[in-house]
Amino acid sequence: QVQLVESGGGLVQPGGSLRLSCAASGTIFRINMMGWYRQAPGKQRELVATITSGGNINYADSAKGRFTISRDNAKNTAYLQMNSLKPEDTAVYFCNAASYSGMYNYWGQGTQVTVSS
What we know:
single chain, four-stranded antiparallel β-sheet, 11 strands
């Protein structure tokens, strides 16, 4: 099993920044990719960004140019730096850790991000 603990969410004004963290523990050797997804009220969960253990990165179009995903393999932690936040970024943000095969797929409990003046 892999446990994921997210932190860093909160309330921020439009144009502001937040940094989310996701610390992984447990059977880390099963994990090849970590990522962030989000779910707004009444909407489906959607991809924000992913990063592989080799450093390959993928962003949703909505995140490109504003969000940066990174990971510290030594700390088994992934980060999401979010800049120029917009009200439409308001959602619960979930950390994900998975294997390339899809056999292993884990989710964090989610952290609320609210962008509002």
